[in-house]
Amino acid sequence: MMDWTDSNCRRFHRLLSRRSLLYTEMVTAAAIVHGDRGKLLDHDAAEHPVALQLGGSDPAQLREATRIAADWGYDEINLNVGCPSDRVQSGCFGAVLMTQPALVADCVAAMIAASPVEVTVKCRIGVDDQIPEDVLPAFIATMRAAGVRRMTIHARKAWLQGLSPRENREIPPLDHALVHRMKDAFPDMDLSVNGGIGSMAEIRDHLRVMDGVMVGRAAYHQPWDILGGADALWDAAPPFADPGEAAEAMRPMILDHLQGGGRLHQFTRHMLGLFHGRPGARQWRRVLSEGASTGGIEVYDAALSRTRPEQ
Residue 280 belongs to a domain with what CATH number? Predict the structure, then answer.
């Protein structure tokens, strides 16, 4: 979700679901240690519960980044061992670390020692020519021995050579059944499944076996379909009856953002799929896509008017 789940995105998603755990974009440990910490770590209090996702492979650097991030009050610190992008590989973090479980164990142990909140891991089922049935349980066991109690498993291999990051999200076959078997093999671990999950019906099916479900692309591109009814999983009433109500509720937040010098598209680029599959969805996307980069609240109002039945 790099370049997607920024603070504005998370504030929008939090409006739709009061219970779902939200994740930041992946931030490198080096950037936190040496860069603009406020820019990288600042977030709105309304985003909670929210997890900070870190990338890195240096235990000392990850420990320091975790110690620094503690002051920002995140609810969880997550180490990403699943991202297959070229820039992640070149920095020796992300999915390539599936080949170095002992190093990952050193990293998470260092993070746990410095963190006041839970440290978790997100991984793949394997990379390249690894045999997932052998690699994945050994990797989970190594993380458990290092002190990790909660993991999210993307049910695809990552091919680090020959596939682009986008292709790695679509081409390697999904193996949800293998991930389900990991819950049987590690009943003491809190395990969530990720990858190719696109509806609330699928989420509920996975929750019959797994402790949790992480949804990325579908939650971003069809936010109402995934997040609009997510709170019912906790037997809580959804905040809104329909996406139109949610869009109306976003208006004051967007207006404050504009009055503070922000740009409309900084929020609405995350909202294009709000009316996915509903009347007016195409016009909503068109008006925002064409006008949000230069326009103000009048553009938002015009887009919203296209979704109303009387129009």
Answer: 1.20.120.1460
